Amino acid sequence: MKKIILLFTCLSLFAQSCSHEGHRHDEHDHVTDSYLDFSNRDDQFEGGIRMIPIQTPKGEFRVWTKRVGNNPTMKVLLLHGGPGMTHEVYSCFDGYFPSEGIEYIYYDQLGSYYSDQPEDQSLWTIDRFVDEVEQVRKALGLNKDNFFLYGQSWGGMLAMEYAFKHQDNLKGLVISNMMSSLDEYEKYAKEVLGPQMPEEVFQEILKIEETEDFDNPRYEELLMEHHYQHHVLRMPLEDWPEAVLRTLKHVNPNVYVYMQGHSEFGITANATLKGWDRRADLKNIQVPTLVIGAGHDTMDPKHMEWMSKEVQNGRYLFCPDGSHISQYDDQKVFFEGLIRFVKDVDQGKF
């Protein structure tokens, strides 16, 4: 009799466990269903894609955005690098953010492949890009209760500039793989990264830059073999993700060269971004801020760690095996730290 009672007790506990487990699955399914629900959204027709009209001193243009997921308190707008690259470099976010319930928005800045591409170079200024981001924010209904701004490389520079002017609209800020001074970036490239190359290779690169012989195919060949595969994306070129190659294929050189110059090894002398420096202004950023650096980056990880201490409410994420786009070559560390930051800020734990 005792054995029968014990058996029924075990079966009862098992049934309750299954019931609770089923309840947890129901809750998870409900969250998943809500996250993926496009009904009653104004972007349902194209599955999250919207061409947002942007007012500029040269008239109205349209920029491409795509919203993934629904979350009323965690919405991350992704600013790509370049300038003139594309959102495609963030394709791997699809593998991590949806399972965490984080909404995110792909966005091609004006001049980039999926957006309008006017040829007027007077549009390629930091202030106008900041104003563009603000117009995109308003169009997407982002505000201080949900708006996380993520920027990498040039996108990190743009994110800083946006925060200096509009941080009251932000819930959180992420500056990824971007220093706060381009002079310091060039110094790091020339004094630290360059000497890691074979001496003859480094000298040949410097000579090409000195003579401004940037159309010489040897220049790109040297950078690809001795720099890009070690500090931009730390993989053999044949293993580079298709999305990254697509981004490079779609770059707008008219924007890139005008603002950044001819290479990732430094800022070309006549590029409009040359001399940009915001080190002294970091102390004015009050919003919760994550700064991401990587051990093999084109940017100095020590400088980025310093940045995280200069802002008023900062955290540093170091990707030891990563390079400039560490979302690929140190992916687990990158996404674990990024997701933790977004959720900690959202839950008031930051």
UniProtKB/TrEMBL annotation:
This protein's record includes keyword Hydrolase: yes
Cross-referenced InterPro entries: AB_hydrolase_1 (IPR000073), AB_hydrolase_fold (IPR029058), AB_hydrolase_sf (IPR050266), Peptidase_S33 (IPR002410), Pro_imino_pep (IPR005945)
Domain of life where this protein originates: Bacteria
UniProtKB keywords: Hydrolase
Gene3D superfamilies: alpha/beta hydrolase (3.40.50.1820)
Domain (AB hydrolase-1) ranges: 76-330
Record-linked NCBIfam families: pro_imino_pep_2
UniProt-listed PANTHER family: HYDROLASE, PUTATIVE (AFU_ORTHOLOGUE AFUA_2G14860)-RELATED, MONOACYLGLYCEROL LIPASE
Family named by the database record: Belongs to the peptidase S33 family.
Full protein name: Proline iminopeptidase-family hydrolase
Organism from which the protein derives: Shivajiella indica
